[in-house]
Specification:
Radius of gyration: 42 Å
Order of helices and strands: HHHHHHHHHHHHHHEHHEEHE
Strand order of the largest sheet: 1-4
Oligomer: single chain
Shape: extended
Structural class: mainly alpha
Largest sheet: 2 strands, antiparallel
């Protein structure tokens, strides 16, 4: 059963996590104690053999071998931290992905309850059958990947006996030959039954049927994803690399971390502690890290922290039947709420939480920001005359345009639109009407440009005014 300790660490306090260190179920001690005892036994064997059973010449040879092994264990020739860190990170992401891929019928049962109508026996049978098909599909996929579920339903007859499938459905299921897993068949029955309900008017429109199909496809996608998680594992070669790296590292530590005779003056061997405390801690950390990766790489087994698949199956079938049967159109009376006549009200607190009302609401990180008098002063930039010069244009058209631009200088000096309109009044405008009755305006500055007769000059004016170069 999954070990939960969330309540015990709800508040961070002194010694809060220390209580967890003495638990046995789901602990690293239970997972690692066998390997730890084997390592301690082998280390003790080599230590006793070196101290009491070897001749002086053999002891000297053993000491040289120990120094040679210690040289490699104290360097990065075996990158244990790197390979372990990446492996456990990969295994954890895979573990969380498998948890989020577990098919829960909650969304589907809400859609079925709200869109498959009918309070008679036929409507009830239709809704319950739809949800039974959905739960049957999850049972079939979990039976294929979880040892706990497979032990609960070792044969298809056990599934029939549990009520997830009828005898006729089992015959239909077995009559369809396929070389692959057939967990998807009940979902196909669901889709066909939903289409029949649409034809009979139990599902009242195509939008409701589309919503049913969308939720069904999401449910099917999660079942398929679980199957592929079980099929495609972390590459075996990487698992082998990590395992060999860890165990070979501590294999060399059995010899290299031995306490040698201090009288011989070997480097870093001035004390004889008998018990390699820090080597044992290193074994506990590294091998425990490896065991964590082995534990979470497949959470559908029977370890202490593996997923409770059988309990999830029980929960799913119960809540889905309650939602589509007992809860269908079973509404409490609609009444006015307690604060119906109050415009401003507050929800009461208990005495232990009343102090929270004194905490002001968060208004933003800059809400109470202190400002100096200089920060609050409004600055009005003075209007500065912008003197502009224009490149002279040559020709009769250029003379007229140049005079027009010179008359309009000062218009674009930080003024508003009305000031621009007022400034444009300096240009003489003559209005008239043509033969068709349309109003024709003639701009006649010095040099004279007739807008009704000189279309080419007007186009040239627009082009030159856009491309004109201003020089301060």
């Amino acid at each position: 059963m999954t070990v939960s300790y969330s309540l015990e660490v709800a508040n961070a306090k002194f010694g809060g996590f220390s209580k967890l260190l003495f638990r046995w179920k789901g602990s690293i001690y239970r997972l690692l104690y066998r390997e730890f005892l084997v390592f301690c036994g082998l280390y003790t064997f080599f230590s006793v053999y070196y101290r009491f059973l070897l001749s002086p010449r053999q002891q000297e040879l053993f000491e040289h071998v120990a120094l040679y092994c210690d040289q490699f264990t104290n360097t990065n020739f075996i990158p244990v931290s790197f390979v372990l860190g990446f492996y456990v990170s990969l295994a954890f992401n895979r573990w969380w992905g498998q948890y989020t891929s577990f098919p829960l019928p909650d969304n589907l049962m809400m859609v079925v309850s709200g869109n498959v109508h009918g309070t008679d026996e036929t409507g009830r049978l239709l809704r319950r059958t739809l949800m039974r098909y959905a739960n049957l599909s999850s049972v079939l996929i979990l039976r294929s990947i979880s040892t706990r579920v497979h032990k609960r339903f070792p044969t298809m007859e056990h599934i029939v006996e549990s009520g997830f499938m009828t005898t006729d459905e089992l015959k239909n299921f077995e009559s369809l030959h396929s070389d692959f897993n057939k967990y998807w068949m009940p979902l196909t029955w669901f889709a066909n039954l939903a289409s029949r309900a649409r034809e009979e008017g139990r599902v009242r429109d195509d939008i409701a049927l589309r919503l049913l199909m969308d939720e069904l496809n999401k449910y099917r996608a999660k079942c398929s994803l679980l199957f592929h998680y079980d099929w495609i594992s972390i590459p075996l070669v990487y698992t082998q690399v990590v395992t060999v790296a860890v165990y070979s590292f501590f294999g060399f530590c059995l010899i290299g971390r031995q306490f040698l005779n201090p009288a011989k003056g070997y480097k870093d061997h001035k004390l004889d502690m008998y018990v390699p405390v820090f080597t044992l801690l290193q074994f506990f950390f590294y091998t425990g890290w490896l065991k964590v990766g082995e534990l979470i790489i497949n959470p559908f087994g029977e370890d202490d922290d593996d997923f409770e698949t059988n309990q999830l199956i029980d929960r799913n079938i119960q809540v889905s039947m309650l939602a589509v049967d007992d809860m269908h159109q079973n509404l409490p009376p609609t009444v006015k709420d307690k604060h119906w006549v109050q415009k401003h009200f507050s929800v009461p607190y208990t005495l232990s939480t009343a102090a929270e009302t004194l905490t002001p609401a968060f208004m933003g990180s800059t809400y109470d920001m202190r400002m100096s008098a200089e920060d609050l002063e409004i600055h009005h930039p003075a209007d500065s005359a912008l003197k502009k010069q224009y490149l002279p244009l040559k020709g009769s058209l250029g003379d007229g345009l140049d005079k027009l631009l010179q008359m309009g200088k000062g218009v674009f000096r930080g003024r508003s639109l009305p000031s621009l309109i007022d400034s444009s009044s300096h240009i003489n405008e003559d209005e008239g009407a043509d033969a068709d009755g349309k109003v024709v305006r003639t701009l006649s500055p010095e040099g004279g440009i007739d807008a009704s007769n000189h279309k080419e000059e007007e186009n040239a004016l627009i082009t030159i005014s856009v491309e004109h170069t201003y020089c301060k």
